[in-house]
Write a structure and sequence with these properties.
274 residues; ten-stranded mixed sheet
Length: 274
């Protein structure tokens, strides 16, 4: 499977949002110069693999006709909550694209599955709800709050800028708590220093100080027609987070369908095409 090394992975389930994810992945691959996109379909029983592979061939043949780019494909036995991450790690994937139906109505619990799939991943997920438009991740909102892991997001901001010349909108949490204000300020200074060192364009925006920071971020991203929101996922979420909505979950399944780039807190070592 050496030819699949450094491939961009797409979580594939034959749904319309999976097709959107494939379209985004192909555009992404063309931009960064990757030669491979791989569709990953997970089955419950090994006896279903052959049929899945036949269906995947049809999908990729069709993609070649539509987009002049033919993805690789694979079907494996497993479950979506562990196997996607395992395959991404095995193949040293720089990114995983995944579609979600968002958080509308009865879809709320289904939408929360996206966060559970992502949780603990060592490679970034780009979660989409709609097909690509003309964007190439030029405008990305980067929320800055009090969490220490926010300092780690800037490494991925630099990485994205390398390919897309992205401009970042630093949406800074407003708080009246002195301790939180100090941590937010520390995170902001760190992020700005790295962006300045790499000569990356950014704009600072102070939040409104409302109770729901995630909603603030989403509304702001929509107001500027952002291409994506950069989200850091580090903690292990509990049942209440999935049911009632962690900030990460709200952003990933936002009502405007803005793509979310989710990155795991780590030591700052980026795996990519370098």
């Amino acid at each position: 499977m050496e030819h699949l090394q450094k491939t961009i992975l797409v979580a594939w389930d034959f749904s319309n949002v999976a097709d959107y994810a494939m379209q985004h992945a192909i555009r992404f691959a063309n931009t960064i110069g990757s030669t491979s996109v791989t569709l990953l379909h997970i089955v419950d029983d090994e006896k279903d693999i052959d049929n899945a592979m036949a269906q995947l061939k049809i999908v990729t043949d069709d993609a070649q006709k539509k987009y002049q780019f033919k993805p690789e494909y694979m079907a494996v036995k497993g479950d979506i909550f562990t196997t996607i991450k395992e395959v991404a790690k095995k193949l040293s994937c720089p990114f995983v694209f995944m579609g979600t139906h968002g958080m509308k109505g009865l879809q709320k619990i289904t939408g929360s599955w996206a966060l559970k799939v992502i949780e603990g991943s060592s490679c970034p997920f780009i979660v989409v709800q709609r097909p690509p438009r003309n964007e190439h991740f030029e405008d990305i909102v980067c929320p800055i709050d009090y969490k220490k892991e926010d300092k780690q997001k800037v490494g991925w901001a630099v990485y994205m800028n390398k390919f897309f010349k992205s401009k970042f909108y630093l949406y800074i949490q407003k708080s009246s708590d002195a301790n939180l204000k100090r941590q937010v300020y520390s995170n902001m200074v760190h992020v700005k220093s790295i962006l300045d060192q790499n000569k990356i364009e950014y704009t600072e925006v102070e939040g409104a100080g409302k109770d729901d920071f995630a909603e603030e971020v989403i509304e702001y991203a929509n107001s500027i027609n952002a291409n994506a929101i950069l989200v850091s996922t580090s903690k292990e979420l509990d049942f209440a987070d999935y049911m009632f909505g962690a900030n990460e979950q709200k952003i990933i399944g936002n009502k405007y369908g803005i793509s979310a780039i989710t990155v795991l807190h780590n030591d700052g070592n980026l795996k990519g095409f370098n």
